[in-house]
Amino acid sequence: MTGGSATSSLAGIRVIEMTEALAGPYCAMMLGDLGADVIKVERRGTGDQARRWGPPFLEGESAYFLSVNRNKRSVELDVKDAADHAVLGHLIDGADVFITNNPRMASLERVGLDPKSLQRSNPRLVYAAISGYGHTGPRAGLPGYDVIAQGAAGLMALTGHPGSEPMRFPTPMADITAGLYALIGIQAALYARDRDPGGTGAGDVIDVALVDSQLTWSANVAGTMFATGERPPKLGNAHPSVAPYQPVRCRDKPIIVAVGSRPIWERLCGALGAEDTLMVDPRFRTNPDRNRHRAELIPLLEEILSTRDAASWVDAFRTAGVPAGPIHFLDEAVADEQTLARNMIVELEHPLIGLVRSIGNPIHMAAGGPTYRRYPPRLGEHNDEVRAEVSTGAGPG
User: Fold this and answer.
1) Looking at domain 254-326, which CATH architecture does it have?
2) Which residues of the chain fall below pLDDT 70?
3) What pLDDT was estimated at residue 7?
4) What is the pTM of this model?
5) Whole-angstrom Cα distance, residue 249 to residue 105?
6) CB within 8 A of 99, min separation 6: which ones?
7) Of residues 146, 175, 204, 207, which has the active-site annotation?
8) 196 a catalytic residue
9) Distance CA 104, CA 143 (A)
10) Torsion 384-390-392-395 (CA) sign
11) Is 130 helix (H, G, I), strand (E, B) or coil?
């Protein structure tokens, strides 16, 4: 799906992105989707390290890079070169947002890209720093990737089945979460800045760490640990507090069933034809009862479910008002009619590759929502264009 709303909420906002890999690029792409003019500043000759992450490569372009860099322009600059540094300075002086993922503030200070230096010449600048551990605390400055954050935040130790080794979540959830938290912080800072009726409001400095962001995924599990003082165990696909709330096997394959209340439990039993058995069994009367007797409950459910195929049961449960759904492979998920109806697949024409597809922006708005205007840029594709804007003082493109 191409295009989007006629207006964009961040139109007129200029973002200078000096990041690599995923968290920063993802944040900047979301800002671009919402209408901001995003200029991606890359190392001369090599660019974002993700440009070399593969295979697969399409006409020399990394599929990884293509997935998180739409709605941007690319300019190559060497911050150690005086002329390039001057260009970068002009860009930042005219920007609303600067995003960096350099973990070492001392390195940023050496090249004049720390918050104090940049806000001295552009007080309205919103400065967003994304790093592995943040810029405070005993581990400030250490490098970090998504897998480091997944391990350090305690989530890998919870992922997988009881007795298994720690398991990385297969998609970069720490990176994406950090990118989204940075996005929230940037939008809040822009709102606070622009509430000043005189238009002289100061920017802010946002410090987002991958480890902090990953830790937030433990919210309810940590709540239980704080309440009990006990280290949470691995539960595999089971929920620690709700039952049944997990995959259950039907005749051909498993589905998901989620029973979060007494009425839903009763509707589930009705759809299963188990009003006189499971529904009146004292072991399963309440959610705490079902949690205590989960090992007995699930085989009994699956005995009934084994009489019909998954699709038939999903339809029956949805008709009965029981939250249930299929377990899709990714190719099935992106082709699902709901996914397509929600315009969650973006298609953009690339001059080398042809049609490039990526996952869309999930923010749906009546007005001012996402638009998809630019394919992921080739390295330095907009060098001349951006330099010309600097020389003429042109605003967001």
Assistant:
1) 2-Layer Sandwich (3.30)
2) 1-7, 197-199, 397
3) 63
4) 0.92
5) 52
6) 15, 16, 17, 18, 19, 24, 27, 28, 128, 129, 130, 182, 186
7) 175
8) no
9) 8
10) positive
11) strand
